[in-house]
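Hi support team,

I'm filing this because I wasn't sure whether my run with pyridoxal-5'-phosphate finished correctly. The job status page said complete, but I'd like someone to confirm that the output block is well-formed before I use it downstream. Pasting the exact inputs I used:
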Amino acid sequence: MNSENIYRDFGICDEVFHYCQKIADSLKERFAQIDETAEYNQIKVLRAMQEAHVSEACMLETTGYGYNDIGRDTLEEVYARTFHTEDALVRSQIVCGTHALATALFGNTRPGDEIFSPVGLPYDTLQEVIGLRDSRGSLKEYGVSFHYVDLLPTGAFDYEGIRQGINERTRLVTIQRSRGYADRHTLSVPEIGELIRFIRGIKKDIIIMVDNCYGEFIERTEPTDVGADMIVGSLIKNPGGGIAPVGGYIAGTRECVENAAARLTAPGLLKEVGPSLGNSRLLYQGFFMGPHVAASAVKGAIFAANIYEGLGFDVTPNGTEPRDDIIQAITFHDPRGVISFSKGIQKAAPVDAFVTPEPAPMPGYSDQVIMAAGCFISGSSIELSCDGPLREPYTVYFQGGLTWYHSKFGVMMSLQQMVEDGFVKKEQLL
Ligand SMILES: *Cc1c(COP(=O)(O)O)cnc(C)c1O
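And here is everything the job wrote out:
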C-alpha cells in the first residue's frame, strides 16, 4: 500500500494529501540543516554523559530523603556540562516550567529587590508568580517589585528604555527566549547575548535569567554560552525528549542554583535531598533523545508555517525565517479557526483521539484557552499539541511531535478538518 492510501484510510482527502506532499518535498534541503544541528547537539549531550561517568547505577531509584542519590547528582552534572554551567538543579519535584521559574525567581530575590524584563511582559502564568495579576503568595506579596520594557515596534530592543528601566534596586533580569503567547519574535541566542552584554554594561552586579522553555537544542548554543547566569525550563518540553514524565531544571552559576535549591527544598537542605524515585532513567533517556525530538518538532513547525502561509493565513515565524524555538503561531482572526485547527490536531493523537477539545478557563491564564493534546504524558507540549487563548486576533500556537512523521500527520489532519468545516476550500489546495 502506498502512502496516499494509508492517509486516505485516515480520512485525508486527495487534495489535502497532494498539497501537503508538495510542500513536504520542497522542504528537504531545509530539513537537512536542522538534522545537522540535531547531530551537533546529540554529540554534545553524549559527551556530557560520558564525561559525567553516567553508569548503570545512575538508573536505580532512591526513596525518602534521597541522600547520596548518584543518579540525580550525576544527571545534574550532565545538564551542567551540556549547558556549560557550574551547576544545575534537575528534579522531578519541580512540577512544570512555571514552578521552575518561580523557584528561580523566589530563590534569587529578596524583599526590596526589583525584577526587570527588557523583552515585554512575561509568559501568562508568570504574571501571577510576579503578582501582575493579584495572586496569593506572589513575589509582590513578598515585597519584590517588577518592571518591564517592551520591544520596539520593529522588534528591536529598546536600549534607551532598558537603560532607564534598570535602577539600584534591580536585582534580576528575566529574558524570555520563546515568544510564548506574545506578539513578538522569538529571540535567537546571539540576540540574547547582545542584550546581556548591553545590560552588564549598565549594571555589573545583576543576575540574568533566561526562560529557556521551548528553546533547548534548537540552536548549537544556549543562553548560558552567551553570558546568562541561569537558564530555566520544563522537562515536559524539549529537554525531556517526550520521555521524562515530569520535571524542571535550572542550570547556572553555583550561587543561582543553590539559591533556587534553598527555595525548592529548604534552607540548609539545598540539593542534598530529593529522591529520584523511579524517574532517573527516564530523565537521562529523555535528555539523550532531546536533540532529535526537538528537531522533529521544528520540522513540523516549519511544515505548518508553509502549509498555512500558502493558504493566505498569517503565520509567525513565516515559512522561510530561521527558527529559535519549536512554536508555530497561525492567526485565523476568527475563534472558529482556532477551534477547527485544534480539533484536527486532537484527531491525530495516539491517545484520546476520540475526544473533542473545547475552550475552557485554565489556571494561570486570563482568557479561555482551547488545547489539543492526546499525549502519553499529560500536558506534554513536546508531544503533538496546540493551544490558543480565545482572544483577538485568534491565534493558535502549534508545537511538538515526537517524530517528524507524526508532526506532519497532525498538520495534515488540521488542514483536513479546516476543509471539512468549510474554512478552507478544496480549490485553494490545487
Ligand atoms: C511553557 C512555558 C512556560 C512554563 O509553562 P508550564 O506550563 O508551567 O510548563 C514558561 N515560559 C514559556 C515561554 C513557556 O513556553
